[in-house]
Amino acid sequence: MKLSGSYQINLEKQKVWEALNDPEILKKSIPGCENFKKNSDTEFTATATNKIGPFNASFTGDIKLKDIKAPNSYIIEGSGSSPVGFASGEAKVQLEELEGKTKLTYEVEANVGGKIAQVGSRLIDMTAKKMADIFFGKFSDLVSAETSDKEIVDNKNNILKEETKIIRKKGNKTFTIIGTVLIIAVITYFFFINFT
């Protein structure tokens, strides 16, 4: 089975690359992912349960990254098994930055066997495409939300700093005004005492 596609992500390439290598973001993005463990910088183990035709398949598999050309591309190799069959394959992932946004392109070549292969290649292809759409949809949302949250926090911190500066300036003006009023009051007091 072969599958390819591309997605536009509204972030710069480096941030997308970092997210593609973040186990927590990947775990949240993979449809039906129950466990995602980082074994090394290039090897992971994952467990995911998904419905493929009439089968509710729980796959446990190993994932390996190779031909890493950070932050531009890599190849993901994976294999997994389930009581209803097995799957193995590789995906070439490429990132291209266009005007501050990233175009993620992938090409997947996979093999399936066992009972799930009996549902037919058409259903498997549709399921795989649907899962890819779910993955990249969630991935884009999570990465964008994480960046938006960080930007919101940064903006709030900047606003807080500006408000603090304004308060200090106002505080200094207030102190100056109060000081001036006190000085005038003291001078006026001494003036009336001395001249009356």
Order the strands across the largest sheet as they lie in space. 1-7-6-5-4-3-2
Ends apart, CA distance between termini: 106 Å
- Annotated CATH topology: Alpha-D-Glucose-1,6-Bisphosphate, Chain A, domain 4
**Proportion of helical residues:** 40-55%
Shape: elongated
Which sequence of SSEs, written as H and E, runs from N to C?
Answer: EHHEEEEEEH
Beta-strand proportion = 35-45%
Q: Could you tell me the number of beta strands?
A: 7
The major sheet is characterized as:
7 strands, antiparallel
Supply the CATH class. Answer: Alpha Beta
CATH architecture: 2-Layer Sandwich
CATH superfamily placement: START domain
* Structural class determined from secondary elements: alpha+beta
Which blocks of ≥5 consecutive residues have pLDDT under 50?
A: 148-156, 189-196
Count of the separate structural domains: 1
Computed over alpha carbons, the radius of gyration is 30 Å
Number of helical elements = 3
Mean pLDDT across all amino acids: 78
